Amino acid sequence: MPNFDPKYNSMSLTTTPVISVEKTSQSKIENVDFSNLVFGKVFTDHMFECEFKNGHWQNASIRPYGPLEIDPSAKVFHYGQAVFEGMKAYKDEDGSVFLFRPDENIKRINRSSKRLAIPEFPEELFFQALHQLIELDKEWIKPGLGNSLYIRPFVIATENCVSASPSDSYKFIIILSPAQAYYTGEVKVVFAEKYSRAADGGVGYAKAAGNYAAQFYPTNLAKEKGFQQVVWTDANEHKYLEEAGTMNVFFRVNNTLLTAPTNDRILDGVTRKSVIALARRNGVDLEVRPVTVDEIVTAAKQGHLKEIFGAGTAAVISPVSGFSYKDITYDLPLQEDSFAAKFKKELTEIQHNLAEDPFGWRYKVM
Ligand SMILES: *Cc1c(COP(=O)(O)O)cnc(C)c1O
Predict the structure, then answer these.
(1) What angle do CA 312, 318, 324 make, to 5 degrees?
(2) Which of the chain's ends, N or C, has fewer CB atoms near its CB within 10 Å?
């Protein structure tokens, strides 16, 4: 058994179900080319699964990664009652394994679940599952800046019934995928003028599966014009810049860093709040306030817009090389001393145990 951080080793752990473990007889790791990983395509040997039925979470198990057998009438297929998370584990040169602010992810999946009428998952069982699963598959985590293990917890509604009401049963699953620092190529974005990803009172702040499906069509339209992503604006007036599809966004106007405050349309990203903390520590002039399309377009025209970058767990920080608004494209030449590069370096060094962790963000798994 791994050691638990005393913070999570609460009394209730003794009452949570023990996780049954079935190990794979044949690891797949020998077949994986770790220097050539496509993000999210390869999965490790094991997965965690836990069922919710009769009013509580039960049958926690770790077993070989493989297909689920789910009835076609399961509610997740009809009403999209599903939420997920994205987080990473890192290995240092000594073989120690760390998570980055994992308490934020379990709290957030439970906030997402609540909004989707899904029962919350016990925090201590989540940590126990992560410990045991990562311990089993730790060979899949490679040391070195950029290498990581992407962790995908998710919850799906499994009741076999097509009536439009919340499911009475669910599965909470965790799968693991080895990841490399990926070069996203040039990222050019379109500021949304017509479509929206989230509305007031909606589910934008939740990592709800349906939020992503709804973005694919408008994002495809942007791709046809040579842009990779959409920066979503407020649904009412398309006046305020909110966030990208899977990343929060930052704007640097001269030496001031701007980002929108979170609200019920914007996902409260862990990377976003970490960048904000690093910016404050660095004494960067930072404004967390609504950012208008107008001010950014004006700044770009006047040469004051220095950078736009996205912040999210998968790519950490993604510099944006240009944007389009009302069919005019504005280029953003790479900066010598970019905030994007600086914060990416500081963040990844903390994540990989290569730098001090003054914020207490690293969580040692083993
Ligand atoms: C996951 C996500 C983010 C980034 O959150 P992190 O916690 O930094 O990974 C930003 N926006 C959306 C819509 C997301 O789904």
Answers:
(1) 115
(2) N
In the chain, which segments carry CATH 3.30.470.10?
Answer: 20-180
d(CA 19, CA 61): 5
Q: State which of 203, 216, 246 you would mutate to test the pocket of ligand 1, scoring each by most atoms of that ligand within 8 A of its C-beta.
A: 246
Q: What is the pLDDT along the chain (366 residues), one digit of tens a residue?
A: 333 443 443 334 445 559 999 999 999 999 999 999 999 999 999 999 999 999 999 999 999 999 999 999 999 999 999 999 999 999 999 999 999 999 999 999 999 999 999 999 999 999 999 999 999 999 999 999 999 999 999 999 999 999 999 999 999 999 999 999 876 678 999 999 999 999 999 999 999 999 999 999 999 999 999 999 999 999 999 999 999 989 999 999 999 999 999 999 999 999 999 999 999 999 999 999 999 999 999 999 999 999 999 999 999 999 999 999 999 999 998 888 999 999 999 999 999 999 999 999 999 999
CATH 3.20.10.10, the chain: domain bounds: 188-351
Instruction: Report yes or no: 182 and 89 within 8 Å, Cβ to Cβ.
Output: no
Q: Which of 194, 198, 193 is nearest to 325 (CA)?
A: 193
Q: Does residue 62's CB lie within 6 angstroms of at least one atom of ligand 1?
A: no
Please provide the CATH number assigned to the domain covering 188-351: 3.20.10.10
Residue 118: partners with Cβ closer than 8 Å, 6 or more residues away: 81, 83, 112, 155, 157, 166, 167, 170
Architecture category of domain 20-180 in CATH: 2-Layer Sandwich (3.30)
18 sits in which H/E element: none
| CA 305 to ligand 1 center in whole angstroms | 24
- Ligand 1 centroid distance, CA of 246 (Å): 5
Query: Which atom of ligand 1 is closest in space to residue 87's alpha carbon?
Result: 9
